[in-house]
Amino acid sequence: MTRLSLAHLGALPEQVAQPAYDPTAHGVGIVHLGLGAFHKAHQAAYTDSALAASGGDWRILGVSLRSPDPATQLTPQDGLFTLIERSAEGSAARVIGALAGAAHLGTDRAKVLAALTAPQTRIVSVTVTEKGYGIDRATGGVDLSHPAIAHDLAQPDQPIGVAGLLVWALRQRRAAGTPPFTVLCCDNLPENGAMLHGLLMDFTRRAAPDLLDHIRAEVACPSTMVDRITPASTPATLEAAQELLGLQDAAAIETERFTQWVIEDRFPNGRPDWGAAGAQFVDDVRPFEEMKLRMLNGAHSMLAYAGFLAGHKHVSDVMADPGLARLVRRHLRASAATLPPLPGWIWTPTRRLWSRASKTRTCTTRPIRSPWMAPKNCRNASLPPPAPRWNRGNRWTPLPLPWPPGCATCWAVMQQASPMICAIRARTRCTPPAGTGPRRCAMLCTRCRGCFRALCWPRQSGDGRSAIGCN
Question: Where does the Mannitol dehydrogenase N-terminal domain start and stop, copy by copy (predicted)?
Answer without folding.
Answer: 29-274
